[in-house]
Design a protein that fits this description.
The chain is of the alpha/beta class. The protein is built from 11 helices and 17 strands. The longest helix has 20 residues.
Length: about 350
């Protein structure tokens, strides 16, 4: 089995999480690193034994590096478009962070480029790898809870709340992120709904900025924040299934609270990230009594995201793997949510179809 040589772009906190997963994946090694911060590059390279020629401060030079078979991009949102474009151009398989891009215009441009390009691009919708979510998907498809009638999805964090005195940072800067909690956490909620149940066809939303000013860590001055830190929306999922979504960075007591409930005619499934090895199933037993079972998820549903990426590089095909088309569709739905809030009306996803063909690069 040929060793897969990975190049890593972006050496922030999440990079350590992804690289940590590599220790459990056979036949792969970190071969090159890239960051704008040369000191970080040197520190990472020394720690992982990376040659001087494979230490980069420019993304394109890493992507062109002949010692790199595939690329992991763990960067702020404003870097996603160009890194994806370069990987498609140079034919380097890629795993990119979510959200796919900052804007729908960027996503539409990449979709057009990919239409004539076979380079695989995986999008980091990490919660597709929560065992309970994967098991629930199978059960829903098998009809274990009957026809799905509606679902509820929420993703809450607390770090943006007033008690934490969070200073201005890139996640709160529209020029870098495109949207706030909607793109950061809401993109996961949208992907989960698509993964478990079906495609959103129409959305109606409310987005709010709850904390309008924060301290600039460089100057100490208070600066305006013009990005959402709360978003709620409803959606019709094809074929006519209602869904409710809520996300916030100001939910005191919520560290990383991502939970989903799917309600069917004959049963309900509850799942959440922090107890991802268990699925709760509410149904009637043979005697007709309502029971609540907490089921340990079988080992066959456990797949690490980095294992899935390495398998992709080796040519393996998995239907449930999040790919470029999933990233594009996710960004399209995010755009519809933003438009709905701005225009104070429900927005059908198909309204954006013609626009995707008109947007220039």
């Amino acid at each position: 089995m040929k060793t897969v040589r990975l190049g890593l772009i972006g050496l922030g906190g999440m990079a350590g999480v992804h690289v940590g997963q590599l220790s459990g994946v056979a036949g792969v090694r970190l071969a090159a690193v890239c960051d704008q911060d040369a000191a970080k590059v040197a520190e990472w390279a020394e720690r992982h034994g990376i040659d001087a020629a494979s230490r980069h401060t420019d993304a394109e030079s890493l992507i062109r590096d002949p010692e790199v078979d595939a690329v992991m991009s763990i960067t702020p949102n404003d870097a996603h478009y160009e890194i994806i474009r370069l990987c498609l151009t140079y034919g380097k398989p890629l795993m990119t962070e979510k959200p796919f891009t900052r804007t729908y215009e960027e996503a539409a441009s990449l979709k057009r480029l990919a239409a004539s390009n076979s380079t695989p691009c995986m999008v980091g919708f990490s919660y597709r790898y929560v065992p309970a979510f994967r098991m629930a998907r199978d059960w829903i498809r098998e009809g274990r809870i009957g026809p799905v009638r509606h679902l509820f999805v929420q993703y809450l964090q607390q770090w943006g709340g007033t008690p934490f005195e969070t200073k201005m940072n890139w996640r709160l800067d529209r020029a870098i992120t495109g949207t706030g909690t909607l793109g950061d956490l809401g993109s996961h909620m949208i992907d989960a709904a698509r993964f478990l149940v079906g495609e959103p066809a129409e959305v109606a939303s409310l987005m709010s900025n709850l904390i309008g000013q924060r301290e600039d860590p460089a100057t100490g001055a208070m600066v305006d924040v013009d990005i959402d830190d709360f978003a709620a929306f409803t959606a019709w999922l094809e074929p006519g299934i209602p869904a409710v979504f809520q996300t916030s960075r100001n939910a005191f007591g919520s560290q990383n609270q991502f939970e989903i409930a799917v309600y069917g005619d004959t049963g309900t499934l509850h799942m959440n990230w922090d107890q991802g090895d268990y699925l709760t199933w509410i149904h009637r037993n043979a005697e007709g009594s309502e029971v609540r079972e907490r089921i340990a998820v079988p080992a066959r549903y456990k797949l690490a995201q980095m294992q899935d990426f390495v398998d992709l590089v080796r040519g393996d095909v998995r239907e449930e793997r999040p790919m470029l088309q999933d990233g594009y569709l996710n960004q399209k739905i995010l755009e519809a949510v933003v438009r709905s809030s701005r225009e104070r009306r429900s927005v059908r996803i198909e309204e954006l179809d013609d626009r995707s063909e008109e947007v220039g690069t």
